[in-house]
Amino acid sequence: MRAPIGDFDRALPAPDCLELLTEPVAAAVRAWTGSVPAGQLLYVDTDPDIADTAVFVEHHGAGLLDASANCVVLTGKRGESTTLAACVVKSATRVDVNGVARKHLGARKASFAPMDTATGESGMEYGGITPIGLPAAWPVLVDATVVDTPWVLIGSGRRRGKLIVPGKALADLPGAVVLEGLGVPAA
């Protein structure tokens, strides 16, 4: 089947290619109970050398920029307590770390998690972290514009491959909270 967005030769239902996903992502797809059927979570094979958004969009179509979302891992700290959380925003924006995200987490300080923490705790590769399959205890903060996007291109858990999912499916993830203004224009 052709992908609903982008210039991809072929898209496969994620349940049909679990071996191409990291274990946490594959487990989440196997256990999927969202309002969108698991078969609408699509996998497209991509070159890991062009996984970064700007290069990826240049190669697969400029229209993908508005349909792409990044998932970044934050640490929120309050006293001795540290919370890991994921934030999903459109690729053309950046996470409002010290505003919307920090306040929602009830943290005194919020920052991007170190790479080894983000990859080690998620079980995913740097540059491929996706909100699907993250640890159940993590809040998954999703910008409302992502949820309102018909089809969203996100990571697959690896640098090779991407998932294309209906934006509304991200609101159904465990720990998901849809927030207005989480993504702000990139400076």
From TrEMBL:
Organism in which the protein naturally occurs: Streptomyces gulbargensis
Show where the YbaK/aminoacyl-tRNA synthetase-associated domain sits: 65-173
Pfam families this protein is in?
Answer: tRNA_edit
Q: Which domain of life is it from?
A: Bacteria
Protein name from the UniProt record:
YbaK/EbsC family protein
Note the InterPro entries from the entry: YbaK/aa-tRNA-synt-asso_dom_sf (IPR036754), YbaK/aa-tRNA-synth-assoc-dom (IPR007214)
Q: What Gene3D superfamilies does the database record attribute to this sequence? A: YbaK/aminoacyl-tRNA synthetase-associated domain
